[in-house]
Inverse folding.
């Protein structure tokens, strides 16, 4: 469908807002400009969710007097718990809730001037919230669209929105508690859906996916790599670690891919791109999808290289290799975020979960990696780690050797590598010594020549350099001529230095 | 009895995660490829990968989704085991009947799994390659009595001849269903694992790394 849109197919009328307001439209906003799109969307929301809004208000009023006694307890029944949590946050939440449902009030007049800044409304703004507003709105819209046909859609939306709004103001909570809250919510909601859909787990899954997408899009900025954790420190640590392991080769890891095959190296590049892309996604499930795509490229690379389906023994080393090559940004933060906020059923038994688990394994392996895990001697390992030696240049020669089963071979190569290095160094040292000797010889030689030249011009005769230049050639013997040429090459201070005293 | 326990969930689909553990070359990958794709040593397979495979079963009217996780068997990956097997409902511990060492490895796995996961996990000990019975180095009695002593079931299989594999997984599924029922009854609701148990990606440090890395085995 997007194929037609691609290319240079610019018709002005297509670019303008569908409402004809004169601003440019955007495909992402269904052809509207940002202003009209927002209005259009909000009109829809208004229609579809007016009732939900009213119920929300009634609920808030009903709970208003109970506001204080709302410590979260383990024993409360699922949804009461959320009502209570939500209620606790009620006062601050009202702004954001009504924002979605009352479009025209309080909107600053100059919003047309900045069509991409969706909201400059009166939200109790941490700046992060304002930045993610556009995403928030889109997520909300998509969530509503998805839920519309469901009988209980409105109820689900209400619960999720209430919970999400509540979470935004819990940033002072520890990451584990935040995760606990979200996981409890997932669990309770999916249990309820399970009962409601009479056990059709596919259906439950698809709703839960949308729930996660909606909630985590809105919560991302607040709960990704939160300050309360040392996620960021860990990110930097693994990044540094991977950088220090730049010398690790395919052979050391027993990676069964042959990058000389163009299709394979293409897959490798794609796998690297995908694992890097993970950082740009907001929703755990979408981050997982990046890992899964990366894994599929790896499987293809293995299959083309090995001509058989990849087993875990092929896959894990290759994934480790890809991670080492990619050094994905904020790796630990991403893993933690997924672990904390992903739908648990997906992580526990699904295919995405398998690849994610392998990524966790790869990271753990990289963190703990030592000489033994690469079949190296600890001396070699230290040498490579300290940057005193590198096995890489040998790579070009070793590349064609069959990759699997070549551990021993690699070791031999590495040792060969080392001894070759030794030889090279010896060679260089010899060269240096030789050069030194040559220099001494040369100086001596020059001294001698100069001396003999001086001796052949007894005192009283004009200085040799001057005469040689001004007098015609025949008077001087050829030997002196050639000596003169060499004399001219001498650095000027040499003569006076040698003969001054 | 079991139908009473599943009163509210008679229609539910079970999702089970099963990990395959065992030394390199004992036939883990072969077993699962045989089970899910009915293939053995087939170079022309259309399967892209043999590390994560699923199978849908219908056991006495209940739907079961089985996810089988292959694990990397090389010694140097041993310490990663806990990351793989956490949250799994079952483990298939494979050894090669012609290889005494591989049976010893299974015993180590059993110890570790029981230590980390207790009795929540259903263990199957599988002696593979019974088509090579003439080279057998692990006696049937030893293996079976060991399995019984640790509360595991023992099976004999041949991925090559497709023997014993269906039974192995069917049996395992039934046991995992029973465990799930028992858990539900204990907890009084349909929740599977509590959210708390699924958190924390960790690996244990105190691994008995007896032998140095074994290297690859693709020559065999
Ligand atoms: N005779 C015989 N050979 C088998 C059987 N099962 C597997 N093999 C062979 O054993 C070798 C190893 O099998 P894999 O399935 O790759 O073993 P694995 O346990 O997955 O090994 P890793 O992936 O290295 O951990 C292959 O050459 C198989 O053909 C069997 O039942 N009988
Ligand atoms: Mg295998
Ligand atoms: Zn417009």
């Amino acid at each position: 469908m997007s194929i037609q849109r691609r290319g240079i197919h610019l018709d002005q009328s297509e670019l303008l807002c569908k409402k004809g307001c004169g601003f440019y439209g955007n495909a992402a906003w269904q052809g509207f400009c940002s202003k009209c799109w927002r209005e259009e969307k909000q009109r829809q929301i208004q229609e579809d969710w007016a009732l939900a809004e009213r119920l929300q208000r009634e609920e808030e009023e009903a709970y208003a007097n109970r506001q204080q006694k709302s410590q979260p307890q383990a024993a409360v029944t699922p949804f009461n718990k959320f009502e209570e949590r939500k209620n606790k946050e009620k006062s601050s939440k009202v702004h954001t809730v009504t924002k979605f449902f009352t479009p025209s009030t309080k909107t600053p007049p100059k919003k047309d001037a900045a069509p991409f800044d969706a909201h400059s409304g009166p939200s109790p703004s941490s700046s992060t919230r304002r930045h993610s507003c556009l995403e928030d709105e889109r997520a909300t819209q998509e969530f509503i669209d998805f839920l519309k046909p469901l009988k209980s859609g409105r109820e689900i939306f209400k619960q999720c929105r209430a919970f999400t709004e509540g979470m935004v103001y819990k940033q002072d909570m520890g990451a584990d508690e935040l995760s606990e809250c979200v996981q409890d919510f997932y669990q309770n909601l999916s249990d309820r859906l399970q009962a409601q859909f009479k056990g059709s787990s596919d259906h439950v899954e698809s709703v839960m996916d949308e729930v996660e997408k909606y909630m985590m899009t809105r919560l991302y900025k607040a709960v990704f790599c939160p300050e309360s954790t040392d996620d960021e420190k860990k990110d930097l640590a693994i990044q540094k670690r991977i950088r220090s392991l730049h010398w690790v080769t395919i052979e050391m890891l027993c990676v069964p891919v042959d990058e000389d095959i163009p299709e394979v190296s293409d897959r490798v590049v794609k796998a690297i791109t995908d694992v890097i892309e993970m950082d740009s996604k907001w929703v755990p499930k979408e981050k997982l999808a990046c890992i899964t795509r990366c894994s599929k490229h790896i499987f293809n690379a293995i299959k083309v290289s090995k001509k058989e389906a990849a087993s875990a023994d092929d896959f894990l080393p290759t994934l480790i290799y890809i991670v080492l090559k990619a050094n994905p940004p904020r790796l630990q933060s991403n893993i933690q975020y997924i672990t904390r906020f992903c739908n648990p059923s997906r992580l526990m038994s699904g295919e995405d979960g398998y690849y994610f688990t392998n990524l966790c394994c790869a990271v753990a392996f990289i963190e703990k990696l030592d000489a033994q895990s690469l079949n190296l001697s600890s001396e070699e390992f230290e040498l490579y780690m300290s940057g005193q030696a590198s096995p890489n240049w040998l790579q070009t020669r070793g590349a064609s050797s069959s990759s699997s089963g070549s551990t021993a071979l690699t070791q031999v190569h590495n040792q060969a590598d080392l001894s070759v290095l030794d030889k090279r160094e010896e060679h260089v040292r010899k060269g240096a010594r030789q050069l030194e000797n040559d220099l001494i010889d040369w100086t001596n030689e020059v001294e001698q020549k100069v001396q003999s030249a001086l001796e052949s011009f007894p005192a009283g005769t004009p200085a040799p350099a001057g005469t040689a230049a001004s007098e015609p050639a025949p008077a001087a013997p050829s030997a002196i001529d050639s000596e003169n040429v060499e004399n001219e090459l001498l650095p000027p201070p040499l003569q006076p230095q040698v003969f001054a005293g | 009895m079991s139908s009473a326990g599943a009163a509210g969930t008679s229609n539910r689909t079970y999702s089970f995660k099963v990990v395959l553990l065992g030394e390199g070359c004992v036939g883990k990958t072969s077993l699962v490829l045989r089970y899910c794709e009915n293939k053995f040593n087939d170079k022309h397979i259309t399967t892209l990968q043999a590390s994560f495979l699923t199978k849908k079963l219908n056991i006495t009217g209940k739907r079961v989704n089985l996810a089988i996780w292959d694990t990397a068997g090389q010694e140097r990956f041993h310490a990663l085991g806990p990351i793989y097997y956490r949250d799994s409902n079952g483990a298939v511990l494979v050894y090669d009947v012609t290889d005494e060492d591989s049976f010893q490895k299974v015993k180590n796995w059993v110890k570790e799994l029981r230590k980390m996961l207790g009795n929540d996990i259903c263990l199957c000990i599988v002696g593979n390659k019974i088509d090579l019975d003439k080279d057998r180095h692990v006696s049937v009695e030893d293996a079976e009595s060991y399995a019984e002593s640790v509360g595991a079931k023992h099976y004999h299989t041949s991925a090559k001849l497709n023997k014993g594999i269906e039974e192995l997984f069917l049996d395992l599924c039934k046991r995992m269903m029973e465990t799930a029922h028992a858990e539900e009854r204990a907890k009084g609701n349909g929740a599977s694992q509590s959210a708390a148990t699924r958190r924390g990606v960790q690996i244990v440090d105190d691994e008995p790394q007896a032998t140095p890395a074994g290297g690859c085995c693709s020559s065999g």
User: Anything to note?
Assistant: The two ends of chain A are 94 Å apart (CA to CA). Residues A 17, 19, 21, 23, 32-33, 35-36 surround zinc ion (ligand 3) (CB under 6 Å). Residues 183 and 344 of chain A are 8 Å apart (CA to CA). Confidence is low (pLDDT under 50) at residues 1-10, 65-129, 395-413, 464-483 of chain A.
